[in-house]
Design brief:
The protein is α/β, with parallel strands linked by helices. The chain has 21 helices and 21 strands.
C-alpha cells in the first residue's frame, strides 16, 4: 500500500516542525506512525461529579467553562493558566503550566470533557494539567484512551489526532501480513482490525485480541529470523579447529583463582573452538562474575593457535575498561592488544590498521570503529561482542565478516531466565557463569521514599568524608537528550547545594565524547566525589573506590537494570551500598523494591520479574537488554513465544527459504524488518 510509505510530513496537520518532533520518536512514514503503539491505556469510560472528587485521584469530568483563561507569569520560563469550570454540583479550577494553547480553545457555556488529577489544598479543589476535548462524535476521552511515549514539543492529544487521521486515510485497506491459514487456525484478528483496536479499542476484549494478533506476528518474525540465522551457521560453514593449548601461562599471571563456573564455561568454549564447526555461543554472567577474564583466556587460545581476536563493545567506556583489564594481563605474557574507539586520532588509527593487517596486533578491542572497512585483520579467528543486544544484526555480522570462518562468542551481563534464553536465543548455544568470585562484597540495598532525602544527603557526605565515592543515577523520563541533560544538570545543582564539602559533577548524553571521557577519568582518579549520571554508567565502569549507588525514581527501571546499576559498586574491598529512591505507592513497585533489598542474584531477580508480570505493569524489554519490539513483551508474552517457536520450526522445515505460497509474506517482512544478510 503506497500510502504507508509516504513521508509523515505530507499527512494533514504535520508541517516541517512537527515532522522534526515525530522523527525524534522514530516516526518517518505513515507506516511508522500507525505502528507507533501505545505504552499504556486509561479507562475514561466512567464520569464523576465535582462533589464526588477526592484528593489525588485521577478522574474524567464533563464540565462547562464559566470564565476566560487567565495567565500569570510567575518567573521567566514559567506561566500558569487558569480556567473556572462547573457542572450541576459545583465549580472547580483547572490549572495548566506553560500551556499557551488553552487560551484560545474554550468557549463559555459549551460542554467539554476534562481528564486529570485532583488536588485539594486549603479547602480549594483544582484539576492539575488536565487533558481536555470538546464533546463531539469523534472524541476519545470518555473511552479507553491510548497513552504513548512522548518527546518534547508534542502532547498526547496531538499524537492521538495524527494517528486517527492516518487510520482514516488508510481506511482499512492495509494488505494482510499473515498467511490466511495461520489467521484461521489461531483465531487471530485481521491486520486492519488489529491496528485500529490497538490504538482506539472499541472494548477491552477488542484490545486484548488486537494485541494478541500483533504480538503473535512480531514474535513469529523474530523466531523465523533467529532460526534462519542458526540454519546459516549450521550449514556449509566449517569452523577453525583451534589447537589444544595449555592455559597455565595466562592463569599463572592472574592475581586470583578462577571460579568453578568460569572453568566450566571455558571448557564449553574450548570444546567449540577445537571442533570443526563455527562456535556461536552466548556467555551469560551476572555483574562481576568474571566474563572479561574468560574472554581473555579464550582469545589467548586463539592467539597461541596462530590467529587474531577482536572484542566489540557498545560504548567507548566499556571498550576502554576491557582494554585496560586485558592489556594488564597480556603485557605479562608477551601478547599485544590495541584499543580502537571513535576518539582515536586519525594518525593513531592508521598506525593500528597497518599493524593489524601485518599481524603485529594479536587482539583488537573497540567500539563499532572496529567494523569500519579500512580495519583489516591478517588472520581473524575469534570474534567477541559484549552486550550484543546494543548492536544491530548487521553491525555484528560485519565484524564476523572480516573472517571467513571466525568463531563467535557473545557476552552479556543481562540475567535472563534460562527457559526464556533458550527460546529467545534459538540461534545460540548458551553458557552461564552462575558464581561470583570469592571476596566480592555483598551490596546492602535499601529502598526509601523521597521524605528521607535529608538522611540520604548526610549518608552521602559521611561516605565522602570516609574517602569513598558515590554514583547518583537519574532515569531518562522522556526520549529526549535535552530533557535528559536538563534533569541531570538540575540534579547536579541540587546536590552541589546540599552536599557541602563534596566535589559533584555530572555526565549525560549531550556531552561530547572527549568530555565524557574526561569526567570518567577524573572520577576514576578520585578528583570527583559524587558523579551524577544517566544510565551511561550502567556497564563497563570499574571504580573500586565507589561504594555508594543512589538511583533516583527507581520505580522507572526494570529489576535487571537496577541490578546492573547496583553492580557498579561493591568492586573493591570496602562495604558498599545501593539506595533506591522511589515515589510510587503501587504494591507491585513495593514488591520489586523489596526483591532488590533481599537478593543480589540477578537470575533470581529476572525470575521475580516474571512472577510480578501483569496487566498495566511494563517491564519493558529494553530494560532487560533484549531485542527491541514495538509491542511484544518477552516476559508477559511467554505463552505466545512458545507457540510461535513451534510454528517457525515447522515453516522452515517445510520451506527453509520461505519461497512457497503465502510464506513469501514472511520473506518480504524479514527483509524489511531485520537488517540481515539472510539467504532468503
Amino acid at each position: 500500500m503506497d500510502i504507508l510509505r509516504n513521508d509523515i510530513q505530507y499527512l494533514k496537520g504535520v508541517g516541517p516542525n512537527r515532522k522534526i518532533v515525530l522523527n525524534k520518536l522514530g516516526i518517518n512514514t505513515v507506516y511508522d506512525l500507525i505502528t507507533y503503539f501505545p505504552r499504556d491505556y486509561e479507562d475514561r469510560s466512567k464520569f464523576k461529579k465535582i462533589n464526588e472528587l477526592i484528593d489525588g485521584e485521577v478522574v474524567c469530568l464533563k464540565l462547562i467553562p464559566i470564565s476566560n483563561v487567565t495567565e500569570s507569569r510567575i518567573r521567566r520560563g514559567l506561566s500558569i493558566f487558569k480556567l473556572m469550570v462547573k457542572d450541576d454540583t459545583g465549580t472547580i479550577m483547572c490549572t495548566w503550566f506553560n500551556n499557551k494553547y488553552v487560551k484560545g480553545y474554550f468557549n463559555k457555556g459549551e460542554e467539554y470533557i476534562f481528564f486529570g488529577k485532583v488536588s485539594v489544598k486549603y479547602g480549594k479543589v483544582e484539576l492539575v494539567q488536565p487533558e481536555y476535548e470538546k464533546i463531539d462524535q469523534n472524541n476519545r476521552t470518555g473511552k479507553i484512551v491510548p497513552i504513548y511515549p512522548l518527546t518534547e514539543n508534542i502532547n498526547q492529544t496531538t499524537l492521538r489526532k495524527e494517528i486517527s487521521i492516518a487510520l482514516k486515510l488508510i481506511d482499512n485497506k492495509m494488505e494482510e501480513t499473515l498467511p490466511a491459514n495461520i489467521i484461521a487456525k489461531y483465531n487471530l484478528m485481521g491486520i486492519n482490525e488489529a491496528i485500529n483496536n490497538i490504538h482506539f479499542p472499541l472494548s477491552k476484549e477488542h484490545f486484548k485480541k488486537a494485541r494478541v494478533r500483533l504480538v503473535f506476528e512480531e514474535l513469529l518474525l523474530m523466531q523465523l529470523m533467529l532460526l534462519s540465522l542458526k540454519k546459516g551457521y549450521d550449514e556449509d560453514k566449517k569452523g577453525i579447529e583451534f589447537n589444544k593449548v595449555s592455559t597455565d601461562e595466562i592463569i599463572s599471571v592472574l592475581s586470583f583463582s578462577l571460579t568453578n563456573a568460569q572453568k566450566r564455561v571455558l571448557e564449553e568454549i574450548f570444546s567449540d573452538m577445537e571442533s570443526n564447526k563455527c562456535m556461536n555461543r552466548l556467555m551469560q554472567g551476572d555483574v562481576g562474575s568474571g566474563k572479561t577474564i574468560v574472554a581473555a583466556i579464550a582469545m589467548y587460545k586463539a592467539v597461541r593457535s596462530g590467529y587474531q581476536a577482536a572484542i566489540m563493545a557498545p560504548t567507548s567506556i566499556l571498550a576502554t575498561q576491557h582494554y585496560e583489564t586485558i592489556r594488564e594481563i597480556y603485557s605479562k605474557i608477551g601478547l599485544t592488544c590495541e584499543l580502537l574507539v571513535g576518539s582515536t586520532t586519525k594518525k593513531q588509527k592508521e598506525k593500528i590498521c597497518e599493524r593489524l593487517a601485518n599481524g603485529e596486533i594479536d587482539v583488537l578491542i573497540g567500539t563499532h570503529a572496529v567494523i569500519e572497512d579500512n580495519v583489516i585483520f591478517k588472520n581473524l579467528g575469534l570474534v567477541i561482542t559484549d552486550e550484543q543486544h546494543r548492536f544491530g544484526v548487521r553491525q555484528r555480522s560485519r565484524l564476523s565478516d572480516k573472517s571467513k570462518n571466525a568463531d563467535i562468542l557473545i557476552m552479556t551481563a543481562t540475567p535472563i531466565p534460562r527457559t526464556l534464553a533458550l527460546i529467545l536465543y534459538g540461534d545460540l548455544d548458551i553458557s552461564i557463569i552462575d558464581e561470583l568470585p570469592p571476596g566480592r562484597q555483598k551490596i546492602d540495598t535499601f529502598a526509601i521514599q523521597k521524605d528521607k532525602q535529608e538522611r540520604l544527603n548526610n549518608f552521602i557526605i559521611k561516605n565522602v568524608k570516609d574517602g569513598k565515592q558515590a554514583y547518583i543515577v537519574c532515569p531518562l523520563v522522556e526520549e529526549s537528550e535535552n530533557i535528559e541533560a536538563k534533569s541531570v544538570e538540575e540534579m547536579k545543582e541540587y546536590y552541589q547545594a546540599h552536599l557541602i564539602g563534596c566535589r559533584v559533577e555530572c555526565l549525560h548524553g549531550k556531552m561530547k565524547n572527549k568530555d565524557k571521557t574526561r569526567i570518567m577519568d577524573e572520577f576514576k582518579n578520585g578528583e570527583i566525589d559524587v558523579l551524577i549520571s544517566t544510565t551511561v554508567i550502567e556497564v563497563g565502569v570499574n571504580v573500586p573506590n565507589a561504594t555508594l549507588m543512589v538511583i533516583e525514581n527507581a520505580e522507572r527501571f526494570g529489576l535487571a537494570q537496577l541490578h546492573q546499576l547496583r553492580g557498579r559498586v561493591g568492586r573493591g574491598r570496602d562495604k558498599s551500598y545501593c539506595i533506591l529512591k522511589y515515589e510510587s505507592h503501587s504494591n507491585v513497585v513495593k514488591q520489586r523494591m523489596s526483591a532488590m533489598e533481599k537478593t543480589n542474584d540477578g537470575f533470581v531477580l529476572s525470575e521475580k520479574d516474571l512472577e510480578l508480570r501483569g496487566p498495566g505493569d511494563f517491564f519493558g524489554t529494553k530494560q532487560h537488554g533484549l531485542p527491541d519490539f514495538k509491542i511484544a513483551n518477552l516476559f508477559t508474552d511467554m505463552d505466545i513465544l512458545k507457540i510461535v517457536q513451534v510454528i517457525a520450526i515447522d515453516i522452515l522445515n517445510q520451506d527453509n527459504n520461505l519461497e512457497k505460497g503465502e510464506n513469501i509474506l514472511f520473506k518480504q517482512q524479514l527483509k524489511q524488518k531485520y537488517e540481515t544478510k539472510l539467504e532468503l
